[in-house]
Amino acid sequence: MPSSPNRESTPSRAGLCDSCVHQQLVRNTRGSTFSLCRRSREDPDYLRYPRLPVLACPGYEAGAPAGGAAV
Fold first, then answer.
1. Comparing C-alpha atoms, which of 53, 58, 55 is closest to residue 39?
2. Is residue 46 part of a domain?
3. How far apart are CA 2 and CA 43, in angstroms?
4. CA–CA separation, 7 vs 9, rounded Å?
5. Within-domain flag for 21
6. 14 pLDDT band (50/70/90 cuts)?
7. Could you tell me which residue, 4 or 62, shows the higher pLDDT?
8. Structural domain span for residue 46
9. CA–CA dist 19, 62 (Å, integer)
């Protein structure tokens, strides 16, 4: 299965974000990985980089888990 370019093959521990269609994993030049919420681009109620692990989110939409196929 091909993986999504926004996901990594190693699972992170971001809670709900790990299986949400709005998550984008962002890697910096030092090798750290951050969980970006793409909902934050259109809705200011969502944090761009939420505090992890996210245990509840009204905007959660199930998608492929990290490292899975693109939705």
1. 58
2. yes
3. 30
4. 7
5. yes
6. confident
7. 62
8. 1-57
9. 6
Q: Is 53 domain-assigned?
A: yes
29 token code pair = 């030049």
Taking the C-alpha atoms of residue 39 and residue 17, their distance in angstroms, rounded to an integer, is 11
Query: pLDDT tens for residues 34-52?
Result: 999 999 999 999 999 999 9
Q: Is residue 67 part of a domain?
A: no
pTM for the model: 0.70
First to last CA, the chain: 12
Residue 55 has pLDDT above 70, yes or no: yes
pLDDT at residue number 13: 83
Instruction: Give me the number of domains the chain comprises.
Output: 1
Residue identified by tokens 């905007």 is 59
